[in-house]
């Protein structure tokens, strides 16, 4: 891992740790295992790594080279999801060793660039400019979701930490995305979230005065907003009709929701 500036904040340090854990999932994996199908229809482990690598590549350009980022995103006419899928072709000819090296290089470049953005600055992104910490949280969301697909494929139970607070905050920040993806009008006010951390702490987000509330483990919340588990397999409780509906459509990323996961698709609670 490339050395990160000493003044890197806790969110960047959390991104570093999450990226290292993602890397551990595939480090030393036999070449044939990279071709295993994952729970994401049509995606192999290799595709998952290539996707995350591409997203980090874009983040690195956004933070370090605005002109290069604009040139890269000028081709996004089909929308982000379609373009990311098309970008996988750029990684298709790599050997496993080459793909692994490229992922680590693009990871390190992006994290170093995000860490060195001056305080108070934003960086360009696909819709609106974002503070680097918010873009880092988006990176955590990518690592969590695609890492879960890889872990599910390999039968690995992941260890959760209180770094999930950053991803949970991002999921709350993007609470309207599920409505936008489906052409729906969101409620006028958001929801109040009470989420239980792996340490047992209770984290609260959103307006307290609303009658629409969602409570439960933060891990389940993160699995929901990344659409890696069906709501029926999670211990999330909604109070209020709007909150209950939100559990059906929640997603922390723009673009099409994708098929998600089926009820009972996974036995036991991943951890």
Helices and strands, with pairings:
Layout: H1 10-26, H2 45-64, H3 66-73, H4 80-87, H5 96-115, H6 132-154, H7 164-173, H8 177-181, E1 192-196, E2 202-205, E3 213-217, H9 218-225, E4 237-239, H10 241-249
Parallel strand pairs: 1-3
Antiparallel strand pairs: 1-2, 3-4
Structure characterization notes:
The protein contains 10 helices and 4 strands; from the N terminus they run H-H-H-H-H-H-H-H-E-E-E-H-E-H. The chain is an alpha+beta fold. The protein has 2 domains: 145 residues, Four Helix Bundle (Hemerythrin (Met), subunit A), CATH 1.20.120.450; 86 residues, 2-Layer Sandwich (Nonspecific Lipid-transfer Protein, Chain A), CATH 3.30.1050. Helix 2 packs across helix 3, helix 2 runs antiparallel to helix 6 and helix 6 packs across helix 7. A hairpin with a 5-residue loop joins strand 1 and strand 2. Helices cover 47% and strands 6% of the residues.
